[in-house]
Amino acid sequence: MDRPAVEPVPGAPAATLDLGTERALGVADYHAGIEIGLRYERGVELDSNADARRERLLSLLDRTGAERVVVLGDLVHRIAEPDGAEADEVRELLDALEARDVPMTLARGNHDGGVADVFPDRIDLLPPDGARIGDVGLIHGHTWPGAEALSASTVCMGHEHPQVRLTDAVGGSRVERAWLRGPLRRAPFADALGEEGLLEWNDPELVVFPAFNERSGGTWINVDGQSFLAPFLPDGLASGQAYLTDGTRLGPYREV
């Protein structure tokens, strides 16, 4: 029986990725140092969750037996070059991974512009428009993906931090992180890339990862007035399904 290209880890905002020669643990939007960013951006004072974030990731590695960590963008929170406690958090994470002989691959996001300068040779950086490893396309989602990533049968992205607001019978509500999955439409990408006749297309499924960082907010995909952040959404995803991290299928995301 073939292993699924992308298999969510039950109860976690993470998935295992079959990259052909390796099995990876995929997460999106780690946002190291977010507490520092929230202090400067919003005046919110929060104790750092750096140690807890790192231990959650390491426990998922132990649980899945993955050989690599893939971060689908926004490893760090501040858009500027990471320094201070933010850089320390990434450094300690990389130290822990290297102690396990587990490399990290980063599909660069809009917050990751200075990562290469601060951590040269410690992270495998993908091109800004993503890449394909095995039969999995890896992108962040803040820009149009390149033809290589789109040639895969499954395309994984972050950036959106998808969430759903669920309301009970008495009017109470809660917000939960969610997965968003569905077939990609070729037309928007062919138009944007100007490659109608050249774009290799294997009817890919798009998998939008929930944010790994629980403090990073997100896009309420089932609330009127919320707009997507990726330039190719929602046009590129006509019939996506929403799922909670515990595996509960909520149905078409527009109808949740």
From TrEMBL:
CDD domains: MPP_PF1019. Residues 27-143 form the Calcineurin-like phosphoesterase domain. It comes from the Archaea. SUPFAM superfamilies: Metallo-dependent phosphatases. Gene3D superfamilies: 3.60.21.10. This is Metallophosphoesterase.
